[in-house]
């Protein structure tokens, strides 16, 4: 759900309201899912950066 929300927002260009209607959830739920998706992406990028530095 977080990934789907992220893709609809960032790749699809939909608004939070449009995503909420499409998914049948509240706007606050969409915003929460987006926040969690961004946090997961940040963690993943930090981890990849750390591994890359460790391997060099």
Secondary-structure map with pairings?
Elements: H1 2-10, H2 16-23, H3 27-55
Overview of this structure, please?
- The protein is mostly helical.
- The chain has one domain: Arc Repressor Mutant, subunit A (Orthogonal Bundle).
- It is built from 3 helices and no strands.
- The chain has helices spanning 2-10, 16-23, 27-55.
- Helix 2 crosses helix 3 (27-55).
- The longest helix has 29 residues, at 27-55.
- The chain is elongated, with a radius of gyration of 14 Å.
- The model has no long low-confidence stretch (mean pLDDT 90).
CATH superfamily: Winged helix-like DNA-binding domain superfamily/Winged helix DNA-binding domain
How many individual helices? 3
Number of strands: 0
Helices and strands, in N-to-C order?
HHH
CATH class: Mainly Alpha
Number of domains: 1
Main pleated-sheet profile = none
What percent of the residues sit in helical stretches (DSSP H or I)? over 70%
Residue ranges: pLDDT <50 for 5 or more in a row? none
Which properties best describe this structure?
56 residues, elongated, Arc Repressor Mutant, subunit A, 82% helix, mainly alpha, 3 helices
Short summary:
The protein is an all-alpha fold and 56 residues long. The chain has helices at 2-10, 16-23, 27-55. The protein is elongated, with a radius of gyration of 14 Å.
């Amino acid at each position: 759900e977080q990934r789907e929300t992220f893709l609809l927002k960032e790749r699809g260009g939909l608004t939070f309201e449009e995503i909420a209607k499409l998914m049948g959830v509240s706007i606050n739920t969409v915003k929460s899912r987006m926040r969690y998706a961004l946090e997961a992406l940040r963690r993943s990028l930090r981890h990849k950066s750390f591994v890359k530095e460790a391997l060099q």
